[in-house]
Amino acid sequence: QVRLVESGGGLVQPGGSLRLSCAASGIFFSIYELGWYRQTSGKERELVARIGSGGSTNYIDSVKGRFTISRDNAKNTLYLQMNSLKPEDTALYYCKAVRQLTSYWGQGTQVTVSS
Predict the structure, then answer these.
(1) Are the beta carbons of 80 and 66 closer than 8 angstroms?
(2) Burial of 51 (0-12, 13-18, 19+ CB in 10 A)
(3) How many angstroms separate the CA atoms of 93 and 50, rounded?
């Protein structure tokens, strides 16, 4: 059974930091492309950052220089380090694992940036 479990979300003040984790089980983790997505009420889910099986990364413009995606294949875990958080980063954050035509989602972790 495949499971992706996110953790690390919470309430943080503007300018603060959070580190999200996504622990995977039931897949050959290292060969999957991985991504962090986020969604707010009434909007479509958007890709925030992705990391390929070889370690290449991509970010949306609004998080470049503030967020860092990384993976630890030995621990089957994906990370998203989020610094200099802004209120507009508030969303439900999901991780996704993709391999060819197969994809898996986690259940999401809430990030709220507010003073």
Answers:
(1) no
(2) buried
(3) 13
CA distance 17 to 100: 33
Contact call for residues 33 and 49 (beta carbons, < 8 A): no
Tokens of 3: 């499971």
Please measure the distance between the N-terminal and C-terminal CA atoms of the chain and give it in whole angstroms: 40
Beta bridge partners of 3: 25
Beta carbons within 8 Å of 53's beta carbon, 6+ residues apart? 30, 31, 32, 33
Per-residue pLDDT of the chain (115 residues; tens, 9 = 90+): 999 999 999 999 999 999 999 999 999 999 999 999 999 998 999 999 999 999 999 999 999 999 999 999 999 999 999 999 999 999 999 999 999 999 999 999 999 999 9
Q: Whose structure tokens read 């059974």? A: 1
According to DSSP, the residues that pair with 104 across neighbouring strands are 97
